[in-house]
Design brief:
The structure is a homodimer of 442-residue chains. Chain A has 442 residues and is of the alpha/beta class. Chain A is built from nine helices and 24 strands. Helix content of chain A is 29%, strand content 24%.
């Protein structure tokens, strides 16, 4: 038997793969199947952002005189309906996992002590184990962090009404996504970032995010020292007890911490994560870890892939995880997709993204999106892309695959797209293909 | 000097490519730059469909109780604003073309008689020519075809109000797209198709289109014999003078005919198209044809590529057009993308598309889209895809490239996507990769 602890993307996909290979698999899930991704992360952002984008598109049509008005949305119904849909997806995942032949035990605590695996304190005989217990939001260690109204993405579903004012502590991707959505719903949003807002991002994307977050107050390089109660509001305080913002709700989106406490006797890293090699092996033979519990990047597709690769290695397939050029995206008015990094010898080119589905009515505002392509100057190999466009994240997987394969722009010149589209990368590939050929000739 | 007749996608891209290579290029455009694509085709559908999708999304949110109402849109303002945007794009194309070094002459008639090229009847010395005069809507040869209220996609911009009832003659892609949009705006739409509705399409996509066109009356295998005036309405008649529909407006979306009349002394085909080989050479040395004037498929990206390949061949680069696995898409509630065809030994698999951006709120209606992947049974090479999903057309270019390159599902198993997304093809690639490996082992 193989024991998998945690039913999020990593554990679930790993378990299914093992079951497909004929193994007896026991999946332990303390709460609900689907992990943070379904219950507190990706799908929540997707639900909020789909509604927020609809509102912003309506405002755009209204400004042009095409739509008569932009209707209000009921935030409490949105949250309720979102949770229903999450429940429906949860049921699908449960069924899919069982049908693959995985035994699921809910409400039990899985634990590992070195090679020994326990279910609710009782040791179970297992030939191998995968620890896939995910991560949880970091709650800043400041006075007032437990006050009513201070929430994390894990407790966002408890909001019963739309806050008039919302303060978001954190300057990362989740912070930007929540700010976009709540701002579209009508909240006054303040972001407080300890260092820079979206500081690890390409400046092209950072500038685009600022445009999408017009009206949101963004305070950078601003540590939070306390959250106090002031009248009916939460007052967020900074250095020298300065009041940074007042709001009904304070959302902590300050990063994630691996849920590695259930594993003992194996090597851990500085973030508390379980240390694994590129086969997803921990320091203890037969015990693997996959997904957020093994540290960043905290991304669903990476967790899924790690789960499957851990499973493949348990099955003796000797498979390594490839962390190069992992595509990522931020959901604002459109997808902000980025993949790959420039090298020392990078040639880069950018242009506005074309007007297409989802951006036709943005032409008058001259904001149809933007694209940037980076190639290795000598070889012409694709190195990286940055794309702001509706549906931009959809092409991330394919561009990532092309970058990983060392594909050159010249090889890709014969790409035929579907028209109209918003993929600004394609014309850049063509242009740079020509440029690269010319350069080689001269 | 090289003469290019026609400033649509084929002519414009061919002219730019020649100019980039240092050639003197004269581009002749009778009316406006951008061709049917900008003025009567792709961009019009994009404008209408972006607004229609917004309305349908609003209805979905309203059904769930999230949106308070779905606002009305002003059709006349939509048309007016669309035309403004078309003008803006036109100006961009004009500037881009001139900046590349192309000389554009507007309002003149280009003509070719064998090797001789004429501008407004006057012969011009040219080393080569590209005929890229596009196509125009077929107007059925029936009584009443010239009555007021009978329009084609070329005269759609003349509509001043939304018709209460709209009859569309034709059962192809454009017909489906216009039906979706006008139906969302509130018109009662009847489609009359001489043979089957979307009959050349995969049944999976055809069924999906029917779902999106709920409420639209679709009459198949129904030839139209006349359009009569009856009260204030247009009565469309069929066999035995049966009344098929009554409507304020009748839109003929009955296919396209190549604009090849301006070319004489070179070989033409059954549709009146200029016959070309895969180098885009006509039967006359030095004269090339590209885009719709050279016959189907009537697609902007194909026209663009043909224009560029004609230019490359004029430049002595010996380049062939590759017509395999051209991706296409239909804009309904989401993109209906298809690419590639099954062979005799095809293994295929399908599944619902995942809930993601643009389809999260469709989960309760169990209509998040669908995906189908076809591989060559022996080799595991990708052969074809069918995808109904928001943004599905965006990934068409990449899947087409993978199919053309003979990529196998096993090679693509390491694709890492961005989550959440609606690309149902990715999990199928993974699943079939595993399946294919197992099959090979046994």
């Amino acid at each position: 038997m193989i024991v998998v602890i945690g039913g999020g993307p990593a554990g679930r996909l790993g378990a299914i793969r093992l079951a497909h290979a004929g193994k007896e698999v026991l999946l332990l899930e303390k709460k609900k199947i689907g992990g943070q991704c379904l219950h507190h992360g990706c799908m929540v952002v997707c639900a909020l952002s789909d509604a927020a984008r609809w509102i912003r598109s309506g405002e755009q049509l209204q400004q042009l005189g095409i739509a008569s008005s932009t209707p209000a949305i009921s935030f409490s119904t949105l949250i309720k309906e979102m949770q229903k849909i999450q429940g429906q997806i949860e049921a699908v995942l449960d069924e899919e996992t069982r049908q693959a032949g995985v035994e699921i035990q809910y409400g039990v605590e899985g634990r590992c002590e070195g090679e020994a695996l326990y279910v609710d304190g009782e040791q179970v005989p297992a030939e191998a184990g995968i620890i896939a217990t995910g991560s949880r939001p970091i709650v800043l260690d400041i006075p007032g962090r437990e006050r009513p109204g201070v929430i994390t993405p894990h407790t966002l579903g408890s909001l019963e009404t739309l806050p008039l004012r919302l303060t978001i502590i954190g300057g990362g991707i989740m912070s930007a996504e929540f700010a976009y959505a709540f701002s579209a719903f009508g909240s006054e949003v303040t972001i407080i970032a300890r260092s820079g807002f979206l500081r690890t991002l390409d400046p092209l994307l950072r500038r685009g995010a600022r445009t999408d977050l017009e009206g949101v107050i963004i305070r950078e390089n601003t540590p939070v020292t306390a959250i106090e109660r002031s009248g009916g509001l939460l007052s967020v305080r900074g250095r020298d007890d300065e009041e940074l913002s007042e709001a009904e709700v304070v959302l902590m989106a300050s990063g994630l911490r691996p849920n590695a406490e259930c594993a003992r006797g194996l090597r851990k890293g500085d973030l508390g994560e379980i240390v694994v090699d590129d086969h997803l092996r921990t320091s203890v033979p037969g015990i693997y870890a996959a997904g957020d519990v093994a540290g960043p990047p905290y991304l669903t597709p990476v967790a899924r892939m790690e789960g499957m690769i851990a499973a493949d290695n348990i099955l003796g397939k000797e498979r390594q995880m490839d962390y190069r050029a992992i595509p990522q995206s931020i959901s604002l008015s459109r997808d902000f997709m980025f993949c790959g990094e420039p090298s020392e010898d990078t040639a880069a080119i950018g242009s506005p993204a074309p007007a297409g589905p989802g951006s036709f009515w943005a032409v008058p505002s001259r904001n149809t999106g933007t694209a940037r392509l980076m190639i290795q100057g000598e070889s012409g190999e694709l190195e990286g892309v940055r794309l702001i466009a509706p549906g931009g994240s959809l092409i991330g997987a394919y561009l990532s695959a092309l970058i990983r394969r060392g594909c050159t722009v010249t090889e890709l010149e014969d790409l035929i797209e579907v028209h109209p589209n918003t993929d600004g990368i394609l014309p850049l590939i063509r242009y740079m293909g020509e440029w690269n050929k010319k350069r080689k000739r001269s």
